[in-house]
Specification:
Length: 1535
């Protein structure tokens, strides 16, 4: 015992020593200066002139480069810091399995091609943009180049300086993902510091140099203003989205790598911030770094930063070369640039299928050359064919022909000299592996070094001790910031210890009446078993805790920042202090209240043995979290393993009574060794010790023998966690090429060759099939008369929702049913009356480009220019018209959300699709002097309310005096930089704020306050839908919930079809929406679906929060064109938007410009340029500039006046308040309010039937619809249902075999079976906690829209789980009852099932109560074990109820539903059961009435078994009532 104790003491001492050392190290880092002087900056980064010309061919006169120290070579290898790196890709093709689809006419599944024969090269010093429409394959190509793919089939070659990917690549490259993942509790400065310590080699950089690098990156990325702000997450307010994106870039470039990959670095940023970010990236490229970035809709200034551009469409290469030659290249193919001011928009319009070439003159040289270069596939010059000259489905004429398909564009480019130069350069770049023109079809090993992740084990930037220290310091700092979690842990252990001490108070000091096993012996052994069980289940919170950390770990581990061992080591040690402190608190309080043996040796032994059991359980929970795919799966597995382990501890079933087939399980159950040691230690000094040890089967066991066994289990559990954290083996299969990466066993090589051969055949078959499909598409495009084969196109478009050869002619004619020819001069352009508003504008005064001015005014004689803003900006033929092609559905990664391709719907398309949509009566929105303040974190709400009157600085002002007016039929844009207050103003206007203080006036149709909620809709920034529903089903349930009951079914279906057509979703109507577990519709389609759900009831006013975030320019235009069409139906639209293109900006009528909460402009969009270029503000408007980018630059302070000075926000706000524009608006405001009251009567008539009603439909009808929706969701998501059924069956079989035909004299075994039968159904319901949290988000969205209230959601929560619960408990009860041989009576079995079912429902409703009441699932899962043990402690099994203190025994058992369930089962089993014998219990056996004596010993006398049923029903009612109260009064959505 002494050796075991001393050995165990070393572990916490060692852990605390390392932890304290890490804390001191972290504190030293945190005490460093926040800023460094310029002289200090020059100690790391020196400036020098470079005489040689830059790599991109630009002038090097002003080329000054940062010379950064090369990274260390701790792992060997060479450095790219001095030479740069050339990235070469040769004939890359990539295929993945097809996405999940729904539909009757579905072909046999086959791989989906995402990339097709892509070759490219990027030189050092180049910034290369990967561009294309959604689904083009941009992110896929970036992941191929970066070596980040894990699944699929890949063919081709990727080389770096002519070499395969090796350790140098992983050390000197970085990959910035599209989503921002940071530790929410850390500040920006701390995040950058830890990144510097992990990424900058310790031998070459000192702490001062790292600190200087942190400040340099923060200053360059504009993060110096938020260095001390936390990152935040969905539950914790932190920095803005733009700042998070810049922080992600800063973290990845901290080591100044030579090769940088960026996936959508400007997504969610406004044009000014996007330009700043990419300007910084451009500076990095000028330092002979190679930078590749996927990017959506860059501004002209952002596009000009690129040295090279790669254009993709449909997975095919359409252009690869200098960015300056993009326009020239496509103009040589007869594509017209006239009407475009942004080369990026022009290029995306070409490859996106929304712009066709002009028909060349007959006999021209270009015609002959293009025809000759058409190559295979029947590429027709100019896309003419049949002499067709127009190209609009609406009948409008334009200067262009049909757009080219991706195959045509790729064929033309591959026939160009530029592509031949690319092939030549990539071939010459393959120094060690000369390449053929196309990879051989021979199969090679899947370990191809140039493509797969690990050709050689890469070295890490820092040494293993450094990794461990940094990760330990970061994890410790993170944990100390989680104050709520720490408080919950401490409070939970303290409460359970007090409850345990109260229940068993003084039981340990009671002397046994004899040396035989008796009631006092059972009480003490029950205490020990209770403590052992709690140390196991109290670690349940480790599962969601590790899952939250695993996201960050997977990202950093994939970047090879540190080894798995370092993370595992830090994770194992950082949790020790809290786990040990909580354990010490629990054990000390409980031990002394129970008054167990006070001898030091027994106390210290009990402390250490239970501490070991606690640690093993903690690491076992972490192992489940590391090995399971999701937290729900891990939480579902835990109850099974928990009951399995505790069943063989020796308490429930003595070891000698175990069936022979289960004896082995007692040896692998670590709780058995802990419990055996505790019993041996405590009873070694008691008179009844020998008999107790013999009763449980622990004879001849010495306490010290448990230590080595538990230490072995501790090592095994830690090793299991490490194994679970190891990166999963890549499933990527490489086909083609030459050579093998490393030698393998012959059998493994043969297996890989077989899988690669199958992948090769599938890939080549897919290429052939898709080429045949494309040939069919082209053949059916024009018949002999040059007409559209609409029927054939529609058949292909409907083919399983996958192929995507969708033609707008068939869409409108066959689906929308409202085909109407329009001319290019038809009314209803981009915005209502926009062109007439600029007729009197003076071009010289405004300095507006002629193209933009003519496009806005419509005075140009050029039809293509006039139609640009009227039809979507260069979208001849109505955005592709009958010739518009769409990317194959499902051909993008999850980041790109493919599928939208080049559909390019515009306002006229939406108008033709929505002629059946009812016009709105109109709602006029007027607001004046709106101010919104938010309490500071340290200020209470009451004190903050008082401070508003006395002017004390207790409030943080987010909105300061905003005013505006939006009339029916108008679209108003809320614009501004990150943190400007756009979303705050939108939430205030929409009435969505749940905290803070609002001052000011808001009028809807002249009435103060919000109108009827059924007349308003709010489209949130995120798309919240049920992923297993189709698009049509989603809209159908929205129509059922949001449209009043007087509307019939036929009219509802018609409304759904009209909305589908209006939003261009009819071709994906039967495709699944998709979620994180299944692929579905694209991002643009999901955005339009969100809009469709909100406008299904045709509201009068629509609020949209960032509807174009993450969408490319084509899809952004489609989405906003659909919104413009809604506004044209006399609806009021208010929308926040980032970085709109010229076309999108022209769709708006009014603009509200915000900066730091101040309003600096309100007026029409066409007057914005005139206002900011007026002499009062004097900002220069350069020709070719996007007006939206111009006003954003002016508002952010980055744009200089003609005099060379910058204006800050306060000055801009003061100038606006003093302007004539503001004065005119203020004078007309009162009249607008009065005019709105007159229009209110019209709206009241339009909204008749809904005024005065809380929800659109009757409560019972809403409940019926929600229940029906939940059942459909359960039917689609069969996996949780099947897993639940299998789990109940397996546990029932386990208990049945463990208690197989239990002996008639085994009273204790029968009691154990009954108790653990209800324990399983109680613990098993904990997996519903994450599910309820997921459903809660949709509830908050629909409740905010006043679709239904808390009562309906409350009813749905019960209805969705109760049927499955009833089925599972029936199977469970039938198996357990039959196999164990309980009371042989059908009536008794029916009662057994009834009690098990009611107990399970009580536990289910209690878990739902925790999920609704508590803030996060982690907290709910952490609280659940404590409450479970409180309920089970008063059940009467672990401690007999007569043994409880009188002040507890009189009321605590009565509030425990587990007591009533256990009591009912005991009475049901033993009452009148002649097969039961009490011979092994002498005190009971020799009594006059053995059954009554046994019931009295348990405390169950005087009750009928049927008395239990109403008590359990009452508990269910109480839990459901408390849940409803929480839904009404507790709101976790903080806006």
């Amino acid at each position: 015992m002494h050796n075991g104790t001393s050995t165990f003491i070393l572990m916490p001492a060692f852990a605390l020593s390392l932890t304290s050392r890490a804390i001191n190290n972290a504190n030293g880092c945190l005490r460093a200066k926040a800023h460094c002087s310029s002289s200090h900056f020059r100690t790391i980064v020196a400036m020098r002139e470079v005489s040689a010309a830059p790599a991109d061919g630009r002038s090097g006169s002003d080329d000054k480069r940062f010379i950064v120290k090369p990274q260390g070579l701790e792992g060997g290898g060479t450095s790219w810091s001095r030479t740069g790196v050339t990235v070469s890709a040769h004939h890359i093709s990539y295929a993945v399995p097809p996405p999940t689809k729904r539909g009757r006419n579905q072909k046999k599944k086959r791989p989906t091609m995402l990339l097709r024969d892509v070759s490219m090269q990027v030189q050092p010093g180049e910034l290369c943009y990967l561009m294309g429409p959604s689904g083009a394959g941009k992110t896929t190509l970036l992941e191929v180049l970066a070596g980040r793919l894990q699944v699929g089939t890949l063919r081709g070659e990727v080389l770096f300086n002519g070499q395969p990917r090796d350790g140098t690549y992983w050390r000197e490259s970085s990959y910035v993902k599209q989503d921002d993942v940071h530790i929410a509790q850390l500040t920006v400065q701390e995040t950058l510091r830890f990144a510097a310590r992990l990424r900058m080699t310790g031998q070459l950089f000192s702490d001062a140099e790292r600190e200087a690098r942190v400040n340099m990156v923060a200053d360059l990325l504009g993060l110096d203003v938020c260095l001390h702000s936390i990152c935040g997450d969905a539950m914790n307010r932190g920095i803005s989205g733009g700042q998070l994106k810049r922080l992600s870039i800063g973290v990845e470039i901290m080591n100044m790598p030579s090769l940088i990959f960026l996936d959508e670095p400007t997504s969610g940023l406004d044009s000014v911030i996007a330009l700043e970010v990419m300007s910084f990236v451009h500076k990095l490229a000028q330092q002979r770094r190679t930078v590749l970035a996927t990017i959506h809709q860059p501004s002209p200034d952002t596009f000009s930063l690129a040295s090279a551009v790669v254009l993709l469409s449909g997975g095919r290469l359409c252009y690869c070369g200098p960015s300056q030659k993009v326009i020239e290249y496509f103009q040589n193919l007869n594509f017209q640039f006239e009407g475009f001011s942004n080369p990026a928009d022009f290029a995306l319009s070409v490859v996106g299928g929304s712009l066709g070439p002009r028909p060349p003159a007959i006999g021209s040289s270009s015609s002959s050359s293009s025809s000759s270069s058409g190559g295979d596939g029947g590429v027709r010059e100019g896309g003419g064919g049949g002499g067709r000259e127009g190209g609009s489905v609406n009948g409008s004429t334009s200067a262009g022909t049909r757009p080219w398909s991706p195959r045509e564009l790729s064929t033309h480019f591959k026939a160009s000299p530029g592509y031949r130069a690319t092939i030549s350069s990539t071939t010459n770049g393959s120094i060690h592996h000369p390449l053929p023109s196309r990879p051989s079809s021979k199969v090679s090993s899947s370990s191809r070094p140039s493509l797969l992740r690990h050709s050689h084990p890469p070295s890490f930037p820092t040494s293993l001790p450094t990794q461990c220290r940094v990760l330990l310091a970061r994890a410790w700092l993170t944990q100390t910031r989680q104050v709520d979690f720490i408080r919950a842990q401490v409070a939970k252990n303290l409460i359970v210890a007090l409850v345990c001490g109260a229940i068993f108070y003084g039981q340990g000091a009671v002397s046994p009446p004899s040396d035989q096993f008796n009631q006092e012996s059972f009480n003490v052994s029950s205490i020990l078993f209770f403590a052992m069980m709690y140390t196991i289940i109290s670690n349940l919170q480790a599962i969601p805790q590790l899952f939250a950390q695993r996201v960050q770990y997977v990202r950093e581990r994939s970047a090879f920042l540190y080894s798995t061992f370092a993370f595992w080591f830090a994770n194992a040690l950082v949790n020790l202090p809290l786990v040990l402190a909580s354990h010490l608190l629990f054990l000390n309080v409980a031990y002394f209240l129970v008054q167990l043996d006070h001898s030091p040796s027994v106390f210290w032994y009990t402390l250490f043995i239970t501490m070991l059991n606690n640690l093993i359980s903690f690491y076992f929970a972490q192992f489940l979290a590391a090995a399971a795919p999701s937290s729900q799966v891990a939480l579902a597995i835990f109850p099974v393993t928990f009951l399995f382990l505790t069943s063989f501890a020796g308490f429930t079933v003595p070891l000698q009574d175990l069936p022979s087939g289960w004896v082995w399980a007692s040896y692998v159950s670590y709780p058995r060794w802990c419990y055996e040691g505790m019993v041996a230690s405590q009873f070694s000094v008691r008179a009844d010790g020998a008999s107790t040890m013999e009763y449980y089967g622990f004879s001849d066991w010495r306490p010290a023998e448990s230590f080595p066994v538990l230490f072995i289990f501790l090592l095994l559990m830690n090793g299991s966690v490490y194994w679970g954290l190891l990166p999963k083996k890549s499933q990527l299969v490489y086909v083609g090429g030459r050579g093998r990466g490393r030698e393998k066993a012959r059998g493994e090589e043969r297996e890989e060759r077989g899988s690669a051969l199958r992948a090769t055949l599938l890939l080549e078959r897919e290429e052939e099939d898709e080429e045949e499909d494309e040939d069919e598409d082209e053949d059916s495009i024009n018949d002999e008369d040059g007409e559209v084969d609409e029927e054939a196109g529609l058949r292909r478009g409907r083919r399983g929702g996958r192929k995507g050869a969708y033609h707008l002619s068939s869409t409108i004619a066959d689906v929308a049913g409202q085909y109407r020819p329009h001319s290019s001069a038809a009314s209803g352009g981009t915005s209502k009356g926009l062109r007439q508003k600029l007729l009197a504008a003076d071009e010289k005064d405004l300095d507006i480009p002629r193209v933009l001015l003519e496009s806005l005014t419509g005075t140009s004689d050029t039809a293509s220019i006039d139609s640009r803003l009227n039809r979507g900006g260069g979208r001849e033929g109505g955005g592709g018209g009958a010739w518009g092609f769409q990317q194959p559905y499902g051909e993008s990664g999850p980041e790109e959300g493919g599928g939208d391709g080049g559909e390019c719907l515009d306002v006229k398309d939406y108008e033709s699709r929505s002629s059946n949509i009812q016009k709105c009566g109109g709602i006029r929105l007027v607001f004046r002097n709106l101010t919104y303040s938010l309490d500071r974190p340290l200020a209470g709400r009451r004190s903050s309310r008082r401070s508003r009157s006395d002017g004390a600085e207790k409030e943080k002002m987010l909105l300061k005096g905003a005013s505006g007016r939006i009339n029916p039929g108008e679209m108003c844009a809320l614009m501004g930089g990150s943190g400007a207050g756009k979303t705050t103003l939108l939430d205030v206007l929409a009435g969505r704020k749940t905290s803070g203080y609002i001052v000011g006036e808001v009028y809807f149709n002249g009435k103060a306050g919000m109108p009827n909620r059924t007349r308003c809709s709010y489209v949130t920034q995120d798309n919240v839908h049920i992923g297993c529903f189709t698009v049509r089903e989603t809209l159908w349930f929205a129509s059922l919930l949001r449209i009043k009951e007087s509307v019939g079914v036929a009219e509802r279906k018609k409304r759904v079809e009209n909305v589908l057509g209006m939003l261009g979703l009819e071709l994906v109507a039967d495709v699944l929406v998709g979620d994180t577990l299944r692929k579905g519709i694209s991002g643009g389609q999901a955005r339009r679906l969100t809009i469709g759900v909100e406008i299904i009831n045709l509201p009068g006013i629509i609020f949209l929060d960032e509807p174009t975030t993450g969408l490319d320019s084509n899809i952004s235009y489609e989405v906003m064109a659909a919104v413009r069409n809604l506004a044209n139906q006399n609806r009021t639209v208010c929308c926040t938007i980032h970085q709109p293109s010229i076309e999108v900006f022209a769709l708006f009528d009014k603009l509200i410009l915000m900066a730091q909460g101040e309003q600096i402009y309100y007026g029409t969009t066409h007057e914005a340029v005139k206002y900011f270029s007026s002499p009062a503000l004097d900002f220069m408007f350069s020709k070719g500039m996007n007006p939206a980018e111009y006003v954003m630059a002016a508002s952010s302070g980055t744009l200089q006046t003609r005099g060379g000075r910058k204006r800050d926000v306060r000055e801009l706000a003061a100038l606006y308040r003093a302007s004539e524009l503001c004065a005119q608006f203020s004078d007309s405001l009162d009249a607008a309010v009065l005019g709105g009251r007159e229009g209110g009567r019209e709206e009241g008539e339009a909204g008749a039937g809904l005024e005065g009603r809380l929800f659109p439909r009757d409560m019972l009808q809403i409940n019926h619809i929600l229940v029906k929706r939940q059942f459909l969701k359960m039917r689609r998501n069969r996996r949780p249902v099947v897993v639940g059924v299998l789990r109940h069956i397996l546990v029932a079989l386990f208990y049945g075999s463990l208690y197989w035909q239990v002996a008639s004299t085994a009273i204790q075994s029968r009691l154990s079976l009954l108790f653990f039968a209800i324990m399983f159904v109680m613990v098993g319901n904990q997996q519903t906690i994450p599910g309820v949290h997921e459903d809660r988000l949709l509830y908050y969205r629909e409740k905010g829209a006043h679709v239904y209230g808390p009562f309906s959601y409350w009813m749905t929560c019960a209805a969705s789980y109760v049927p499955q619960n009833i089925l599972n408990t029936l199977l469970y009860s039938a198996i357990v009852y039959t196999m164990s041989g309980l009371h042989n009576s059908f009536a008794c079995f029916g009662y057994f099932y009834l009690i098990i079912m009611l107990c399970s429902l009580c536990a289910l409703f209690f878990c739902q109560l925790l999920s609704i009441t508590l803030h996060s699932p982690q907290t709910a899962v952490a609280v659940f074990p404590a409450t479970l043990f409180i309920f089970s402690s008063f059940a009467g099994f672990i401690v007999r109820l007569p043994s409880l203190p009188s002040w507890l025994g009189t009321w605590c058992p009565d509030v425990s539903f587990a007591r009533w369930a256990f009591q009912g089962l005991v009475i049901n089993e033993f009452e009148g059961n002649a097969r039961v014998s009490y011979r092994d219990l002498p005190a009971v056996y020799y009594s006059p009435d053995p059954y009554q004596t046994m019931v009295e010993s348990l405390g169950f006398e005087g009750f009928s078994k049927w008395f239990t049923v109403p008590i359990l029903l009452l508990n269910m009612v109480v839990f459901r009532g408390l849940t409803y109260v929480s839904l009404v009064w507790v709101n976790h959505e903080r806006r």
